[in-house]
Structures are given as structure tokens and as C-alpha cells.
Fold these 2 entries.
Entry 1:
Amino acid sequence: MSSVAAANKQLPMVGMGQIVMVTQPEVARAVLGSCIGVTLYHPRARVGAMAHIVLPRSSGRTGPPGKFVNTAVPHMIELLEDAGAKVFGMVAKLAGGANMFKATGPMQVGTANIAAVRELLSELGIRIAGEHLGGAKGRRVTFDPVTGDVIVEIAGETQVVL
């Protein structure tokens, strides 16, 4: 069982557009809809970061680095490298990207976020070690850098550990 699942305390939240770096015994939690929760984790260093990414690309728009896939992932790598982790050996786990309003059409933010993060991680050579993406319901995710576990909870469903 994850040390997060065993802990029954108030956990810090990662808000929209934020990136939080965590080291043991800290944990991070986010509530996601169409946003993507990306965790980068280095198993040997036991250090990781979680981003609550809102949109796929900045396209010239300003905002905190965690708001866009194309700025969040490089910033997360920089934070982890500053903490002594090498990009070689980092793994990613992804959650979110839901179609919250069951709408159809050419621009689904959740779907676009999923595609953008998968593409960028592939370009950077970072392996996706687990994912829980899409659907029509929001998720609560908790990241534990001690184990690397990402616990995904959806109301009315069995929790999943990535």
C-alpha cells in the first residue's frame, strides 16, 4: 500500500497552472477535469514534481510555466535536475484529460492536452510509466515521491494506483 493511502491527513493541493516539486515524505494532490496532471519522477533520487496543466500550448500567451504543456514539462525537468535528478531515468505518469461536458467538435481541451503531453514526452525520451486519461469524469490524483505511486480516484469507482 502506498504511504499516501496510509496517511489520513490534509494534503497540499496543486492548483491550475501550478507545478509543485515534492521530496519524501511530502505528497501532492490535484483535482482534474480536462486538465492534465503530469508527474515526473526519478526512482533513484526519489524526487518528483507534479504539474496541473490547463492547455496544450502557450502559442505566445503568457502565464505561469505550469499552465501549458510546452512550458510545464521543461520547467519540471529543470526543477528535478536542480535537485540532482538526471533526465535519463525520469518517468512520467499522466491523469486527467476528461471531456467534462460531453460536447463534440473539433477542439476538445482534454483530448488536445493528452496529445500534446504524449508528443512532448516522446520527443524528450521520457517514458510514460502509467496513465489514466480521458473519459467524462473528473479525477482526484495524489502523487507520492517515496513510491512513485499516483493514486487516481473517481467518485463511485475503485481507486487506481499507477
Entry 2:
Amino acid sequence: MPNIYELIICDISGEHKPIAVFESERPFMPLQVGERFDDHGWDRLGGIGKIATSAEPIRYLVFATKHVIFERSGKLIYQFCVDLQPYSGPRSPAWGQHNPVG
């Protein structure tokens, strides 16, 4: 049975519904609450499209994570759901105060 991995991103500042979904044949990297998570141009759900760029990212912090596993159409689906809250504080000293390199 093939495995499918889905990363489901939710922004908890609005309607708390998925804003982006990514699919992979391999697991996504783990995340921890409080970790930075930036949008550099995701294709957002609901026909919204891309609202951020590498030059002007939308910055978030991981608020919560959840894992769901189920079978669909003969495939085992591993969902990694990530709740994000907007972040407007200073950039991490580890990355400096400059914009990220895209």
C-alpha cells in the first residue's frame, strides 16, 4: 500500500481553516510549538493564490501540531496538520536582521 504525506497549514488568526496543503511521497520535517514558519509564496487554497514573496514573506509561529493517519483509495495517508499564528516580532539573531535569501 503506497504512503502519501500531507502537510496541512492552518492560520488560526482568521477562520481557522486550511490555507495551504502540500503533498509528498516522503515525510515532512518535524516542527515544534514556537518555531518560526514563513510563507515565501505558497499557492493558497480557495482560489486566493500567492500573497507572499521571498522579498516580502508572511511570518508565522507554530501554535500547535496534530497527526492523523487513515486509508483513502488504497493509500495510507499521513496528515501533519500545523496551526500557525501570525508573527511580526524581530527576526531571529541566528539569521540576522536582514531579509531571507530566496
